[in-house]
Amino acid sequence: MADKLSHIDAAGNAVMVDISAKSDTARIAVAKGRVLMSAETARLIAEHGHKKGDVLGIAQLAGVMGAKKTPDLIPLCHPLPLTSVEVTLELATDTDAVDIVATCKTTGKTGVEMEALTAVSITALTVFDMCKAVDKSMRITDIRVVHKEGGKSGLFTAD
Amino acid sequence: MADKLSHIDAAGNAVMVDISAKSDTARIAVAKGRVLMSAETARLIAEHGHKKGDVLGIAQLAGVMGAKKTPDLIPLCHPLPLTSVEVTLELATDTDAVDIVATCKTTGKTGVEMEALTAVSITALTVFDMCKAVDKSMRITDIRVVHKEGGKSGLFTAD
Amino acid sequence: MADKLSHIDAAGNAVMVDISAKSDTARIAVAKGRVLMSAETARLIAEHGHKKGDVLGIAQLAGVMGAKKTPDLIPLCHPLPLTSVEVTLELATDTDAVDIVATCKTTGKTGVEMEALTAVSITALTVFDMCKAVDKSMRITDIRVVHKEGGKSGLFTAD
Amino acid sequence: MADKLSHIDAAGNAVMVDISAKSDTARIAVAKGRVLMSAETARLIAEHGHKKGDVLGIAQLAGVMGAKKTPDLIPLCHPLPLTSVEVTLELATDTDAVDIVATCKTTGKTGVEMEALTAVSITALTVFDMCKAVDKSMRITDIRVVHKEGGKSGLFTAD
Amino acid sequence: MADKLSHIDAAGNAVMVDISAKSDTARIAVAKGRVLMSAETARLIAEHGHKKGDVLGIAQLAGVMGAKKTPDLIPLCHPLPLTSVEVTLELATDTDAVDIVATCKTTGKTGVEMEALTAVSITALTVFDMCKAVDKSMRITDIRVVHKEGGKSGLFTAD
Amino acid sequence: MADKLSHIDAAGNAVMVDISAKSDTARIAVAKGRVLMSAETARLIAEHGHKKGDVLGIAQLAGVMGAKKTPDLIPLCHPLPLTSVEVTLELATDTDAVDIVATCKTTGKTGVEMEALTAVSITALTVFDMCKAVDKSMRITDIRVVHKEGGKSGLFTAD
Question: Which residue of C has its CA nearest to D51?
Answer without folding.
Answer: C12
